Amino acid sequence: MLGVVAGVALAAAAVALGWFLLREPPVPAPDPAAENLAAALGSGELAGVPMTTETSVVPEEQYEAVFAGLVESADEFEVSLAETTPVTEADDGTASFTATYAWSWPFTEDEVWEYTTDVEFTYPGADGREPGEWQAAWTPAILAPELESGERLAVERVAPRRADIVGAGGKTIVTERDVLTVGVDKSRVDADRWSATAETLADLLDFGDEARADLVARTESSGDKAFVQAIVIRVSDPDYDRQALEETPGVLLIPGTRALAPTAEFARPVLGTTGEATAEIIEESDGRVEAGDVVGVSGLQAAYDEQLGGTPGIRVTAAKADGDDEPRELWAKEAKDGETVELTLDVAMQQHAERVLAEAGEDSPSAVVAVDSTTGGVLAAASGEGSQGYNTAMLGQYPPGSTFKIASALGMLRNGLTPDSTVSCPERIVVGKEFDNVDGYPAGALGEVPFRTAFAHSCNTAMVGQHELVSQQDLHDAAASLGLGLEASRLGAAGYLGEVPAADISEADHAASFIGQARVLASPLAMATVAASAAGGSTVSPMLVVTDETEGAEAPSGTLRENEAATLRELMGGVVEEGSARDALAGVSGVVGAKTGSAEGNDGKTNVWMVAIKGDIGVAVFVEDGDLGSTTAGPIMRDFLAGN
């Protein structure tokens, strides 16, 4: 019996072993195959993935053709396995499941095209005793929703409209204006005439030597059929002979539009310019700007480029390479047009200021700035031709000379002086060094005189003589009460409001501070702010760009009181009635007061100034290299005030 049992057991074990060895291998797990395809779709390396195809298409080649346009336009895209369905097994040993893949194409940080596609996987069964492999059913729709055979994906960038810059009262300053891009079209002239054409064009455009050489060099080095841009001009610009340009062989004028001010000169140092985006601008834009885009490259155009330029839109389409049908839109992100930038500039006043400076014809940097005392709005900020494009009006840093005596006078008033207090005005005084009055100072205003007389005629020695009465901290605080030396927190643009040291200063420099020299610095904007503060009776913080931040900014920390401002206006009135501005401003109506000034500037130049109050407006005129405030800045101030 024991032998029989053992024999039966051995026979059963043999049968079981045979069955195990001869059975078909189990269906492989689906997830590794699905994950493998996800990695391949992300890399484009599809050759190692088992696939079935209905045509002779090569998946890798189709993948590359479909995605060529997207890969160039997007940052690194991602493909991930989102989910899989349960495996379905058939009686014949085959099986199937569906995998869903999530695609993400980041065109910019905020513009991401996301979608899913489904892929059918089939298991053909075992190959003898070897397990089979899962095979992905390749179709174009794996790559994008409903993509058809032969279709290619393309990315179109939808350009937004650049917004306007407007001035006071909503008057348009910068808007899209008709322009002509002028240059050499090398395809329109024989090769031996390329350089000569560039030379002729430079003559017609009145280029200087450097610009001429640059145009010729770029023409010679560019491709045989290149268009070499020389300049962009307004269609209505009378400074160029359009007929001569059009009739010159090889010169091409391409019509278009560009965001421009009314004239090429209008507030250009303030507004800045637009131009083709540089590599640096493109890199810093986080995808907002691409090569060929026109963007702000300086001034407010650059500072507010994102607001003005808006955000481009993206459109992804599918179309057959050899088809005539309209491309089929798969996804789109609408462009966001730019938003208007509002300035306080009064267009007519700015144009008048620029005209006055141009007629004055000063060769050195010059400026006219006007500030509204009631709002702080900068109504005009004009820099003369001698500034050579620099924003002297708002960024110049110069000793303000005797115009600073408005602040010095405030310090004296706060320490007990009145307009009728007697002060000494000698011909010269020594405080650390010798100080004199300007040449031509009236002898009748020397000696023991009322403070109002010394101020009206701008007696340097009388002001310096108060150096023991008024500390440097007092001077600093008085200047701050008039807006000088504060941060330009409400300006909304680059600007300099001056500097007045509060301590750590020598006796000589302290004395020189009373007449706006030594380490005291100001800009024309700062001195117009001083005049506006005196006009309005409270500390003015200038504003150029109107934003929620500038409108809602806290009042400046100055402590100017109306009664102090009234006394300053009284003293400045004496300058017009009997003092250094009498001749320059005689007969100009509405002038409340003024103050002249000159200072030893850099390179031995005499910086000359005049500030004035007319109604609610504070004005500053500055010329870097002049004679006296009354004789050089005075006529400019007269012409400006007479026209406003």
UniProtKB/TrEMBL annotation:
GO biological process, one term: cell division
GO MF annotation list: beta-lactamase activity; penicillin binding; peptidoglycan L,D-transpeptidase activity
Reactions this protein catalyses: a beta-lactam + H2O = a substituted beta-amino acid
Domain Penicillin-binding protein dimerisation positions: 159-324
Top EC class of this enzyme: hydrolase
Domain NTF2-like N-terminal transpeptidase: 30-150
Keyword terms of this UniProt record: Antibiotic resistance, Cell cycle, Cell division, Hydrolase, Membrane, Signal
Protein name in UniProt: Beta-lactamase
